[in-house]
């Protein structure tokens, strides 16, 4: 079975079109709960979490309970058949880390997997019977949280450090609601108004982690062109710039601007996010034109870490960056 990268709706966060909505968090309690959830690390993948069964969970209690019950059934049937996760994965066309993630309810059990598993494990229709329930659960989840974004969202919720390099739009974690809505309303093909409202609200809910304690350490290098592009109009952009000034005053958040007159440019390969989940290795996240990828291979991550260091060195200092944003506000 051929691997495929998760597809996305263009959001306009810190990546090429950027990071969209994720699992809703309404306060510090939810953030801590997700940190506990991420403590059970998955088997290491050589690259992104991609391929069949790679879609992350919606995060709602009802959906999580459904996937947890299915994962337990698959594990019980697999062990009864005397198969290891690797052996079972080979029989159904899935990787070891994907089977492990499904059994632990860290990934959506795809309908194709349920069909194949029912046959291989002699489940007698037990797994096939929940196929439609999974399809309905996925449809409900995508209204608020696009499937392509859910892997990143789950990790961001548990992050102790997040680093953005943004060349197209303000990172989703730093957006105002008006700016977020403008991004969603500009999407082609267009989204329904209900979907826009739900995804904008979910994006705002993500930002709870910035004001929880302990908050993750957040740095962002934003290209000056992003700050000058009037997405949603002049007033929306003014509010966004003021919001960045407010965020820049937080002790846990450091913002820098990469000036247009920078004569050395280490960011030519495009935007990306570096993210360190609690108790786990640092990962990277990239998007471009409808394709997103979560990079876990540590040699590739180290390359992006080094590149980010170079980009930060070419950017204005945090103090000068804030001064430039204030200057832009005076020009509008």
Can you walk through the features of this model?
With 332 residues, the chain is α/β, with parallel strands linked by helices. The longest helix has 20 residues, at 61-80. Helix 3 crosses helix 4 and helix 8 (177-185) runs antiparallel to helix 9. It has a 6-stranded mixed β-sheet, sandwiched between helices. It contains 13 helices and 6 strands. Mean pLDDT is 80; it is low at 1-59. The protein is elongated and about 70 Å long. The protein has helices at residues 28-37, 61-80, 85-92, 96-103, 111-120, 131-144, 150-157, 177-185, 193-206, 224-228, 234-248, 298-314, 318-331; strands at residues 159-166, 217-223, 253-258, 272-277, 283-288, 291-295.
Question: Which key terms come to mind for this protein?
Answer:
elongated; 6 strands; alpha/beta; 6-stranded mixed sheet
Mean pLDDT: 80
| Helix-strand sequence | HHHHHHHEHHEHHEEEEHH
> What oligomeric state do these chains adopt?
single chain
Low-confidence stretches: 1-59
**First-last Cα distance:** 54 Å
What Rg do the Cα atoms give? 21 Å
What share of the residues does DSSP label as strand, in percent?
Answer: 5-15%
Strand order of the largest sheet: 3-2-1-4-5-6
Shape verdict: elongated
> How many DSSP H or I helices?
13
Question: Portion of residues in helices?
Answer: 40-55%
Q: Let me know the number of strands.
A: 6
Given helix and strand content, the structural type is alpha/beta
Largest sheet: 6 strands, mixed
